[in-house]
Amino acid sequence: MLAIRLPAEIEERLDRLAERTGRSKSFYARQAILEHLDDLEDVYLAEKRLEELRQGKGDTVSLKDLMTRHGVED
Asked: pTM higher than 0.90, yes or no?
């Protein structure tokens, strides 16, 4: 179960969409989360990794080494 508060404008848009399509607001909220969760995870994990690298934690791999490792040619 998840309860969220939305700005009034977004709530109204969601209400109109639900009314026009005969679907529930929960359906559209679920769809939005499912479609964007991968992107959000990628962004936050990349930001965390970048911060770790800036702090000198962890190693990097050169593009050349990465391409060789995966059999990609120039």
From this structure: no
